[in-house]
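=== Structure Prediction Worksheet ===
Name of assembly: unnamed complex
Input type: mixed (protein and possibly other molecules)
Chain count: three
Listed entries:
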Amino acid sequence: MAQERVSIIVFSGELDKCLAAFIIGTGAAASGMEVDMFFTFWGLSVLRKKGVKVKGKSFIEKMFGMMLPKGADNLALSKMHMLGMGTNMMKEVMKKKKVASLPELIEIAKQLGVNLYACEMSMNVLGLKREELIDGLKGVVGVATYLENASKAQITLFI
Amino acid sequence: MAQERVSIIVFSGELDKCLAAFIIGTGAAASGMEVDMFFTFWGLSVLRKKGVKVKGKSFIEKMFGMMLPKGADNLALSKMHMLGMGTNMMKEVMKKKKVASLPELIEIAKQLGVNLYACEMSMNVLGLKREELIDGLKGVVGVATYLENASKAQITLFI
Amino acid sequence: MAQERVSIIVFSGELDKCLAAFIIGTGAAASGMEVDMFFTFWGLSVLRKKGVKVKGKSFIEKMFGMMLPKGADNLALSKMHMLGMGTNMMKEVMKKKKVASLPELIEIAKQLGVNLYACEMSMNVLGLKREELIDGLKGVVGVATYLENASKAQITLFI
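=== Predicted Assembly ===
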């Protein structure tokens, strides 16, 4: 029997949804499934490296860069963010209850061999460059690659 | 041929999205498919019983308890909630047009044998106890059970 | 081997999510896959024709009609809408970078033979009539048709 496969589009850049995506992704990888995570639109925020400055961006690209959260450590909850209070409370609780944080889950995903893809078209629209994203990505790809992988997966999700 | 199967993650606790999830779930069950609904994060609000008080909760767990909607009857629309006006209007219209309400759909789901699962990790993070959830759940389970069921399903959704 | 198939529920009426849905849908159709897009709840906004007036609507149906965006050209981003500024900025950038707009993607979808379905129950609840929707739809259908198509698809998404 062929290896089972999970394909997840991470469209949302919200902390709670990204946690769900990585808990499913790492859980599947840990149980021997092949996992593809395809980050697009706001989901690209998760893959941003901190403190990288890229020259030659247009005014609008700089604006997008300023407005998008800067990496997995800076995302907000989709609900109850409450100027950061709710989000911090959630992070505290997760720490106390020994649930892995989002940056930790990303590391685990890499170690388990989860395929992390960044969406080429969204990077182009938002003016994000490859060097602004974290290391260890499988590639910067388009919808064709997504479709090819997803059509082999038993579980396909849009988060 | 094996029985067809649908696997739905209910992540959102919004009325409109939960209605969609249950309309798909009950529709599938009514046509003979096996249906798994896995409630996680805000989606757990749907499964909350009214008026249950649990002792021994931490301050933060009490806060979460207060902020999360108390059951299927108290969810808000994702859009046009308008301090409750839009949500009430939607409920009125559905009633008038004889579309089942969310509490009714949950009852139908149970009668049709839909497998309702609560996510163990989210319950832990939010401090929700089993006795705060409605009766008739198939179980409180983790991501491994979700993956096992979903990998056998033809239709997998994240709502 | 049977033709591969993609099934997308478009629940959201937000510009960014609808763009994602159509980029996946047209991409799949262009590579020879059969594609079903099922528009429900707020997603029906995408299919609205401009400037159609229908008589005999109830007060609440008129309210819904006024509040729902009037077609693919009038959707807002799920984030950074900023009273229209962010949405317009996004549209400008997409145009400059030669990414197809949502109305263009809908045309491409039709030309590629993507099956566009409107959800009967949502139309009923929102009081939308067939003549208010764009031409070229495959049909106005219920959840049974959705399930029948989706159970044959390799990729199933809820957007």
